[in-house]
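From: lab user (bench 3)
To: helpdesk
Subject: output format question, protein + iron/sulfur cluster

Hello, I'm new to running complex predictions and I'm not sure whether the block I got back is the full result or only part of it. Here's what I submitted:
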Amino acid sequence: MSYMDLKSPPRREERLKACIAHGGSVCDLGGKGKKSCLVDDGERGFTQGSICLLLPALAMLNTLPDNVVLMHSAIGCGTCTHSQNANVRFGGNVRWGKVKDGVWLSTALNETDVISGGEEKLEQAIIEADERYHPFSISVVSGCVPGIIGDDIDTVVKQLQPRVKAKLLPVHCEGFKTKIWATAYDAVYHSIGRTLLERSRVDGAEEGEGVDAGMVPYAGLERLPRTVNLMNVSSMGRVDELELTRLLTALGLEVNVFPVFAHPEGMVKATQAALSVSTCPTHDDYFLTYLEERFGVPYLLKHMPIGIENSGLWLRDVARQFGAEEEVAAIIRKEEAELQEALAEFRPLFTGKTVFVSAGEFRALATARLLEELGFRVVGIRSFHHDEFAQGEYDKLAATAQEDYPIDIANVQPFEEVNLLKRIKPDLFLGHANGNATAAKLGIATHVIYNTGLAYIGYRGAYDLARRLARQLKNPTYNRRLAENLTLPYTDEWYGSHPFSYINSRGGTTV
Ligand code: SF4
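Helpdesk reply: Thanks, we reran it on our side. This is the complete output you should expect:
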């Protein structure tokens, strides 16, 4: 049985043995050490926060054109949409020349609904969204409350589908279900697969019990022999899509960018491609396995095209599938020669400078490797979770590390980060726009690791990042002034404690 036959995807804790709590080191996780973080029990004795599934799920869903996001949840759930809307407007503008807000609604479940159930409210909201906006699709996204009180969004959707024009996509994001926020990607892909790519949910063919039975792949659609599904992520800007498209088209390939900012109506094209290539294995493994199993589309899920070495490995893997090894070798030779020449002016400034990186696991590790290539010395990494896909990246970093350094597997937890930063005192910190504050308040030069307006990926991304980092390092005055005028809310006792002391069954001792 495929996971897609289930109403909702499994938790990544079970499916991938993923975890969010480990304190170790690069040599512990990579190279000869290869110690799984599951020696820890995946919990902390104290935690400052977590990441709800809605955050990454809505970052994808809000970008889909002609789609209404209907949250079936309490009123506060999904308010991250307010900040994500800037990306929706910007992303739409750079792709189609149109500034358009995402459309998102909430059933705003209250105390009465918790007692009497919220299914009726959901029905009315779906009908109203369909009549008011006439969208191609409505994503019905459930938060914690319906999961707790037992609202069955799948049955509501199934019963209502014949009465509304929009395709209804149930998306299960009950926040309490898992601490591995990346499960949200599976939830969105699960919904896309079951409702937009499989015929039974689209035209009612061969339905058996519930929405689970009778799912039949689109039949008769031709294979597109030179088309590659380029899997994007919501944190990847158009500029990065264009860089990868440039490299793939140089190999004579057609590119189908999927699924962020892809129109739901055209998503079926992903089932016709000759190959799917991931840009982030954390993001894509669930869906690419499904595309291969169900539609025979092979996939590549190994490298993230950030940095010089990784971009080349990523591109080579694609070219090999199409017998274009010679062409790709020539492309990579030319790109690397131009890039190395362009980077020469920055090397004296970067060489020996220390850097700490914080992000989702694959991005953090690939960026760390790029920073090494630019001449920095990586001295610490915080990854938001850990799973098997990152093993190759840890191996690469363990092989190139000038010294062992700490790896903190943490779904945020700024108290661990501040403890590490106080000890390590890096020259530079790369993290999320909203995750740079602690480092900035310590006076460390910071740069954002995700910004959809800036280039990070491929050869262009390596150069642009270097240019931006040089600017930051030449004038870190703003953060220095912040440190002089702000106090962080932690005690000396905490700064004197081991940074991983709250992780149950502590890992490495590199700090
Ligand atoms: S964890 Fe639950 S209650 Fe909190 S925002 Fe997420 S879905 Fe809503």
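A quick orientation on your result: The chain has three domains: 51-203, 224-336, 344-496. Let us know if anything else is unclear.
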